[in-house]
Specification:
By secondary structure, the protein is mainly β. 6% of the residues lie in helices and 51% in strands. A hairpin with a 2-residue loop joins strand 24 and strand 25.
């Protein structure tokens, strides 16, 4: 069965049961937009991050505040994260709402609304405006300064359904520490973004859009993500307009048991599905990966194979184009302090079947992420 199977029930809010008391759920969107005056491209991201509704109130509760740490109060809020990669003014902006300010439709399809911010399966709009003084005086906000507003239509084209790992029973039992579903690993966006006073246009045919979600009780380490639909065959020079790849994972945990380093990967290659999914054991999936920093770049090397296929992915992204993105876990700890995140990665994918090279693919506009827990930070989970 192909992984390209849409299932918006997996996109529903998962903060029930134990995850309502210690859990997060987020919807991520990333895309390329174009300066309305010059046509210059720039990558952007928008995320709606929900945390610990059972502890919610009229105002957001921050886990990084000293008084909350001393009292053992966990974070509880909706965090709207928005921003831009690349450029001297690249930044992440965080706007917070208390749970009583937030409306969440827990059904299918989902929606999240607070103030002028909203996200659903088919649209998102909102605004974030943080002054330098506010960012400096509120370190618990974990963000920079700037302003961004957006109004976008969403059309999800290709899905990465990871299978049983995020099926209804697994969601109900809440066994994994971190779940993943990419309802739109290839997504068309259309609309406008205004960032720091500049207007950007978003076109469906060249936005190179992506949409997924994660949820659970904690984050993974290492944390790895790579995806792009801006792909070109190096063998033929042809643009691969019906193609996209997505790689994610790190070290999954089922309850207290950590599995060996594993990644879930999918390549939709001109309408054909190539999947490398460790949970589908009958395919003989094997994974090796290395991620590291140099002085100027983050570097990913991923090699995966099944009984039939092999995919070798090499991506780099310039640190000058990236951000160190910030999250606090539902237990209030902030253990990821060097989580590199970018939207302008580039590199190659080599795809083989029965040992024969099918294509060598040039990758641009790749969403990318890598980080590991700060070893100096004590864990009290």
């Amino acid at each position: 069965m192909s992984f390209n199977k849409h299932d918006i029930s997996r996109n529903a809010c998962q903060l029930f049961g134990k995850q309502a008391r210690c859990g997060y759920d987020w919807w991520w969107h990333s895309l390329t937009a174009y300066d309305a005056k010059t046509g210059t491209p720039r990558p952007f991201f928008i995320e709606f991050f929900l945390c610990n509704p059972a502890h919610g109130g009229d105002t957001p509760q921050f886990g990084q505040r000293k008084e909350n740490k001393e009292k053992g109060l966990p974070p509880s809020y909706l965090m709207v994260k928005a921003g831009a990669w690349c450029g001297a003014d690249r930044t992440q902006l965080h706007r917070f709402f208390g749970w009583k300010q937030t409306m969440v439709d827990m059904g299918v399809p989902y929606s999240v609304k607070a103030g002028d911010c909203m996200v659903s399966e088919t649209e998102t709009h909102g605004s974030v405006d943080i002054s330098p003084a506010e960012a400096q005086s509120h370190p618990e906000w974990m963000c920079g300064s700037g302003s961004m507003s957006w109004n976008l239509k969403i059309r999800k084209q290709v899905a990465f359904n990871v299978g049983y790992g995020a099926s209804r029973p697994m969601r109900q039992w809440q066994l994994f520490e971190m779940f993943w579903h990419a309802e739109g690993m290839k997504t068309e966006y259309e609309g406008e973004i205004t960032f720091n006073g500049k207007r950007y246009l978003v076109h469906p045919h060249n936005c190179f859009g992506y949409a997924d979600k994660n949820w659970g009780k904690d984050f993974t380490t290492p944390w790895v993500w790579l995806s792009s639909c801006n792909l070109t065959s190096e063998l033929t020079g042809r643009k691969l307009t019906n193609s996209v790849f997505d790689i994610g994972g790190g070290k999954p945990k089922v309850g207290p048991v950590a599995l060996p380093r594993q990644l879930l990967s999918a390549l939709w290659y001109e309408g054909k599905a190539y999947e490398f999914n460790f949970s589908k054991f009958w395919t003989g999936c094997r994974t090796r990966f290395r991620c590291h920093e140099t002085d100027t770049q983050i570097v990913w090397h991923v090699e995966q194979r099944t009984w039939l296929n092999r995919m070798v992915t090499d991506i780099v992204c310039e640190k000058a184009d990236m951000l160190l993105v910030n999250y606090e876990a539902p237990n209030g700890l902030k253990r990821h302090n060097r989580l590199w995140n970018g939207g302008n990665g580039h590199g190659t994918i080599c795809l083989y079947r029965h040992g024969k090279l099918i294509d060598r693919i040039h990758v641009e506009n790749a969403g990318c992420e890598y980080g590991e827990y700060d070893v100096l930070t004590p864990y009290k989970g």
